[in-house]
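Archive entry. Fields below.
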Amino acid sequence: HLQLQESGSGLVKPSQTLSLTCTVSGGSITSGGYSWSWIRQPPGKGLEWIGYIYHTGSTYYNPSLKSRVTISVDRSKNQFSLKLTSVTAADTAVYYCARRDCSSASCFVDYWGQGTLVTVSS
Amino acid sequence: SYVLTQPPSVSVAPGQTARITCGGNNIGSKSVHWYQQKPGQAPVLVIYYVSDRPSGIPERFSGSNSGNTATLTISRVEAGDEADYYCQVWDSSSDLVVFGGGTTLTVL
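PREDICTED_STRUCTURE:
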């Protein structure tokens, strides 16, 4: 059974860099044609797609965040990571890592981490 | 970018049928997926490719999609179905996963 677990700092100062890591267990990050994703949810609000990475290192970012986001993968540790620079209070959210499953017709998320709250505050 | 519109809330009595809509331009041409999110928990996929259910999801959950509206239908609603529900599509033109704003289902 695939499991994803986020880890990283829960408190980040404004203008600094948010860093999170997702550890995948119960399966290999290199198996299948899946992509590994980050999604966030501000308190009391809806879901926002941040971006994804394939095990090959190919990435795609939400245009609204593209200038500040980097997603990377460490195949040896079965992990992928998120860095978000120049954070503000608007970046306060629960951050989820997830697996994206795509066919030629569409993509959806079939596995989610439990989520981790990141607060941006001085 | 592609926009999905959901009603903020839907209320239904136990045992009745809940219908949660998701509006989008010609959404009937897209595959729609639905997630259930209970307070303090991660979302859970309940419907994918319009009407398929992952293993473990009750048959009471079903989906449909036509024209400009997709619908998640929950039959014989139970108190445990109370949650936020999100629709989602993949916008192929931008390779972006798009979520609706979410609908809170209240079981009266």
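CURATOR_NOTE: Chain B touches chain A through 25 residues (CB under 8 Å).
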